[in-house]
Structures are given as C-alpha cells and as structure tokens.
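Agenda item 2: manganese (II) ion complex prediction
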Amino acid sequence: MQENTLYFERVNHWALQMIDFVKQINSEMDEERITVLERLNKLEKLTNDTTYPNMRLIQEMEEEMKKIQRNVELLCCGKQKPFRSRIPIGEHSLPSLPYDYNALEPYISTEIMKLHHTKHHQSYVDGLNNAEIKLKEAREIGDFTLIKHWERELAFHGSGHYLHCIFWEVMSPKGSKIPKGSLLKQIEMDFSSFTAFKKHFTEAANQVEGVGWALLVWSPRSHRLEILQSEKHQLFTQWDTIPLLVLDVWEHAYYLQYKNNRKDYVNKWWNVVNWKNVEDRFNKAVNIKWKSF
Ligand code: MN
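Presented output:
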C-alpha cells in the first residue's frame, strides 16, 4: 500500500511539472492547450485526494499519462508539424537533408552526398510509390498475378527509402564520438562496453556480403539492443516496420494435415485469428512515430 501511495506522489509531482510546462509552450493551439491542462488538473487532483490507490486505478493512470504526453508532444510541434503522420498511398517524398551536401566533408564528399541523396534515395522513393500504386490497383481489380513482383518491389524500395531516412538523420557534421545517457547504459549492458560494441558493429559493416547495411536495432521482444547485417535489403522485408499479423506458411505448419494444399490451410486459418491480440500489438505499435516522408 505504501508503494502505491509513493507512486501517487510521483504522478502528482509529474502532473504539476507538466502543468507548468504546458503553460509555457509557445503554441497557437489554444483549445488543445486547455484540454491538456484540464486533464492534467484532473490527474493532479486525483493523486492528491485518493488515500488508498489500487492497481486498477494505477493502470488507468498510466494510460492517461501516455495520452497526455502524446497531446503535449502535438502541442509542442503542432506549428512546424514534423509528423506529417499518414502518408497516402504512392505519396512518399524525398526528405531534405538536415545539413548541406558538403557538411560531412572530408569524411564523405559533396559529390557522394549529392548523388546518393538526389539520385539513389529518390529512385527508392519513386519505386516505392509505384509499387504501392500497383498493389492498390491489384486490390481494386482483384488481380494478384503479379503480386510476387510488386511485393518484392515494395520491400526493396520501401527498405531503401526508410533506411536512408534514418541514415541521413543519424549523421551530423557535429557528430559526437560516443553516445550518452540511457543509450550508452544500454550499450554497455548489452555489449559489455562501447568499445566492444563499436568493434562488433564495424566488423558487421565490413563483412556484409556484397551490398547492404549494418544496423543497430532495438528488440521489443528481448528488451535488448542487437547488431544485424542486412545483405540485400530487399530480401524481403521493409525495414523500419513492425509486424502485426503473421501467418506461417512453411510446410511444417500445415503439411501433416493439409499435405500440399496450402490454399486450404490459409483459408481455414482465418477462423482462428486472434484479432484482439493483433489489435493490442497495433495499439502499442502506433505509439512509435517517426517523421514521415
Ligand atoms: Mn544508399
């Protein structure tokens, strides 16, 4: 019980700080500001009055705090709208670089940056838009004869576009030699030291066979950082996406019962989909919002 009371005190403190912060935000979204302040005041009152907080209330409060935080983020960046949010089908665009083409000299030449950004990245954007439109057409007319081709294009150009969006952002002319704070702590926990991490990542990059990427990723499943190589990013995923619903069509998943009749298996499978679970995954996943291009 004491722990719960302590939790309430903390939430109360958070709410008070947020109230101060929201009042200071320089935003023209006055209505939204009032709504957020109302919610914060309610939370502040609740955590002030309740003597015997219970688990259910705490869970509700966690949800409420997340929602408030999202609204505050919107309030902060509402003006410049960095989150264009939903990209309509076929409307991806080339992001502008967060620095000049010559900014990474002498480490990366102006010529490379220009070519890489305006030619290579642009062609991923165009290819992705095209694949999305072709797949939309296929859905509309119900003709999926070229689905393998267009799914491959979707993966190849999608990964290309999304990974380059990350790539430009993770570089800077004012780069620092070592991360700080929670990321550094996590790296040290998962790779034993920053030096060991750097060596591993460097080797992974050096030894990618042919073309591809070296990636530091976060696994929400194992709660760890991991280093991956992606040879040929088109095979066959769109990096930077989160799986929601997956269907195993390896033979071991159906052969004993359905023999080679995969169609029958896939059709029947729809009877056992746990949409509640997919929805839970979706609701968690939508909380991650990168700038959209
Ligand atoms: Mn590239």
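Discussion summary: Residues 116, 120, 164 surround manganese (II) ion (CB under 6 Å).
Owner for follow-up: CH.
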